[in-house]
Batch of 2 targets.
Target 1
Amino acid sequence: MDEFLIDKAACHTERENISEHRQELPKVIDKIMASMSDENCFAHIGDEPIHFTTSVKEMIDKFREILFPGYFAREKVDTANILYNTGQAVSQLYDILSEQIIHVLRHDCLRYELQCAECEPRGNDVALEVIRAIPDLRRSLAEDVKGAYDGDPAAKSHDEVIFSYPGLYAITVYRIANLLHKLNIPQLPRIMSEYAHSLTGIDIHPGATIGNRFVIDHGTGVVVGETSVIGNNVRIYQNVTIGALSLPPNAGEKLRDAKRHPTIEDDVIIYSGATILGGDTIIGARSVVGGNVWLTNSIPPDTKVFMESPHLVYKNQDTKKESRHENPV
């Protein structure tokens, strides 16, 4: 009985403590509300529509269902129902895509007081134009699949590449987002690429220009900047950065549309950990950039760039002796 009384008293004390803390919340809320009028902070309060993240995911999933028929459908697809399934998927994709485009167009129009862009008809037109491009997207992605399979002995089939390779997922989203980027649709392409980035660890800006048979092996930590130009049959490994040189804080507006990222020509291989920076940097065709190499200047075609062979130090705990060995490349 005494234990019950002690526990009951403790519970009563805890409830009082919670109540006291909650009584402080109105004061905190008042301070948060006051900060809403601070022009140095950001808030999105008004009638401007915003995108729906869940719809972006649904849209990407629907694209994949159409781009790779039968791979990502919720039911079996065969010759008896493929026309029906494709028709349903395309119709659903059009509705989601047009709504997303209209939302981002109307958002910018209202929020930044832009000249009327006739958001709804333009959104419908762009959605239809993107869907018309699906046959070309399928052919381009087929080359990416073949490139991954042909260059990776670990890949047992094209199906394995399509089902399980994060690099292909990131490239698929990039190719769709790049099409929207070229059609001058704001926000949505970047939202799509950042969604793929969050899943795969691969960050490809939708403004990058990337040729056929592009392969990202493993992929985690890969960065491809906005103005990068990548040729055909290029393969890169994990933790590769194709980026921009550091700029002074006030250079953003001045260089926003300038070429800030490298050009990688055809048939180049870039190994893990390599960093290639600068808008004037060109990696010549058929070159190989070794792991952990740092490049801010161009190299001619048919060039191999490697780090100098490191020296490894081995310590034997029993004898306390050290030996040094050159690590062969």
Target 2
Amino acid sequence: MSFATVFAPVFVQVALTLALLFWGGLLRVGLVRSGAVKARDVALREPNWPAHVTRVINAYQNQLELPVLFYLAVVAAFFSAHMTVSLVVLSWLFVASRLLHALVHVTTNEMARRFFLFLAGALILTLFWLLFLLDVMAGGI
């Protein structure tokens, strides 16, 4: 399986993470420059940002949690020659769940929907790891 095929979902996940990082940063800088938020009120991570900025930053921070296991799984499966079509499909499903989770996070922030999308991604990632493990155990490295 080609590098591009396997790592395309990784690139999309990285793009999502970076987009949220820069979006949140621009929002924060704009608010401090305009005087709407005082730097001293947020300098030590105090929760004094407006809700819309907090949603974007929280969505960004969430991309630094569960996706770490995704990155590791893809790299391990690819470089151990255990990447399968099933794992690539699961990769895309995981990234789709993260995109939708981030969309809910920065818009309605509806907790039930956000939780369902998080759970879906966690279950997809768990299945990825289980299939990878079974393939490794069945064929060795």
